[in-house]
Amino acid sequence: MSTTSTTESSPGSVALHQQLWRVAQALQGIRDGRSGTAVLEQVPAHWRPGVQALLFQVLRSLGRAQALRALLATKTPAPAVDALLCTALALVWDSAQAPYTPFTLVNQAVEAARRHGLQRQAGFINACLRRFLRESAALVAQTDGDAQARYNHPRWWVDKLRQQYPEHWQAILEANNRPAPMALRVNARQCRVADYLQQLQAQGIAAQPWGEHGVQLAQPLPVQRLPGFAQGMVSVQDGAAQLAAPLLLQGLSLPAQARILDACAAPGGKTAHLLEMLPLGQAKVYALEVDAIRSQRITETLQRLHLQEDAQVLVADAAQVDAWWPQVAQGMPAVADGGLDAILLDAPCSASGIVRRHPDVRWLRRPSDIAQLARQQERLLQALWPLLKPGGRLLYCTCSVFKEEGQWQVEAFVARNKNAQYLPAPGHLLPGAASVPDNPSGDHDGFFYALLQKTKAPSSAAHACG
Ligand SMILES: C[S@@+](CC[C@H](N)C(=O)[O-])C[C@H]1O[C@@H](n2cnc3c(N)ncnc32)[C@H](O)[C@@H]1O
What we know:
The protein has helices spanning 16-31, 36-41, 48-60, 62-72, 79-92, 102-115, 119-143, 147-151, 155-164, 169-176, 193-202, 244-249, 269-277, 292-304, 321-329, 361-364, 367-384, 407-416; strands spanning 183-186, 207-210, 214-217, 234-236, 258-262, 283-289, 311-315, 340-346, 388-398, 420-429, 447-454. The radius of gyration is 24 Å and the shape is globular. It has a seven-stranded mixed sheet, with helices on both faces. A four-stranded antiparallel sheet has the order 2-3-1-4, covered by helices on one side. The longest helix is centred in the N-terminal third of the chain and has 25 residues, at 119-143. It starts with 15 loop residues before the first helix and ends in a 12-residue tail after the last strand. The chain is an alpha/beta fold. It has three domains: 16-152, N-utilizing Substance Protein B Homolog, Chain A, CATH 1.10.940; 183-236, Alpha-Beta Plaits; 241-454, Rossmann fold (3-Layer(aba) Sandwich), CATH 3.40.50.150. The structure holds S-adenosylmethionine (SAM).
C-alpha cells in the first residue's frame, strides 16, 4: 500500500478525497500515540487548515464513528482501512453537522481508497458507507446506549466526570465537543484593552472585552490578521489561563527587586502576563522549563512582547532544586526559609480542561496517566514550597478538570504542610461555561486554581479549597 498521495496539489486546489486521505492518515498517527500537533506538522502547510478542520471534527465524533464501524464490520479492518472508514463515518453520521453532502463524502472516501492502493478494500468501504446511508437512523439509535459513542469520549473519562461532577458531567462533555472561541491577552505594557478593541473595530474584527486584560473574538482569525501582533501588542491566550497572573500578583506586596518563579513555563504565556503586569524593574521573573526545545519558545514569546529585560529563562527539572537554585539565589540575602516572593506552578497535567482546543487529547490519554501525573504534580509542589518566603504566595494551576490534579491534590498538600494556607481562588473552572450556561463571559477552558500563602507559623485555619 502506498502512503503518499499520487497527485499532490497546489494551494487552493485540494480535492476532498485528498483531504480525507490526509485526515485518515492523521487519525492513524493519533491512534499510534502521536499528538494532533505532531501529525498535523506532517501535512503540507497549504493543506493544513482544511485538514485540521476536518480532523478536529472527526476527533469530536470518533466515539460514535467507531461504534458505527463495529456494527457495519464486525471484524476490525486493517488500520488504514479502518481509519478511512471511521473518518467518513465521523463526518457523515450527523447529517446536520456534515461539512459536505453525505453522498459526496461517501464517493470521495471511496475515491481516496482507490487512489492509495486500497482498490480491493474500496468496494468494502463503499458497501459499509452505503449501508450506513440507507440505515443511518436505526444504526445511530443502536449506538446511543454506548457512553463512548454518545459523548465521544473514552468510557473511563465519562465515568470519571460522572463521579466527580454529578451535576455538570454532561455539560462538560458537551462543551468539550464544541470548538473554543479565540481569546487574546492585550499587553498592558503597550496598550489598553479599550484602545485595542478600537483597533479591532477599525479593521472590521468583531470582539468583546474579556476579564481584566482580555478580548474575545467573535470569529477565530490567523494571528497575522491581528493588529499589532508582530509588534507584541497582543497574545493568544484562553480566558481561564489569563486568570493566573492577576491571581498571583493582586494584593501581593512585593519588595524592591522581588523574585518570582514560573516553574513550568513553556511556551511562556503566563510568564509574559506576569511581566506585562509588573512595572519595569520591580521584579525578576525566572522562567524554568525542563524541555530545552520548548524553552526556546519562552525566549521567542518574550522577545516578541519586548519583555526580556526582567526575565531569565532556565532549563532544568524544577523538582531537582539543587540543579538550578544557585542561579536564582545568586546575590540573594541569606534566608532561612526560601527566598522567593511568589511561585507560579502551572504543572504538567492531563490537559482534560482544554479538549475543545485539542480534541486528540481524550483519545491519547490512558486512565493510568492521571495517577502518574498527580504524583509528578505532588513532587513539584513538595520541592518548590520550601523555596517560598514566609508570607510569599504559590499559585498552583493545571488545565485539568480532574480532581486528582486539582482540588484533591491541593487538599492533600495543605494537610501535609501546616504552614500552607488557602487564599481565595476559583478552584475548578469548567469548560465552555458548563457550570454557568447563562453567563457568556464564562466561556473559557477548564482549569484549576489554588492560591496558597506560606504562613510564618503553622496554619490552623485552612478552609476548603476553591
Ligand atoms: C502546562 S505547560 C505550561 C504552560 C505555561 N505556563 C504557559 O502558560 O505558557 C507545562 C510545562 O511544564 C514543563 N514541565 C514538565 N515537567 C517539568 C519539570 N519537572 N520541571 C520544569 N518544567 C516541567 C512542560 O515541558 C511544559 O512545557
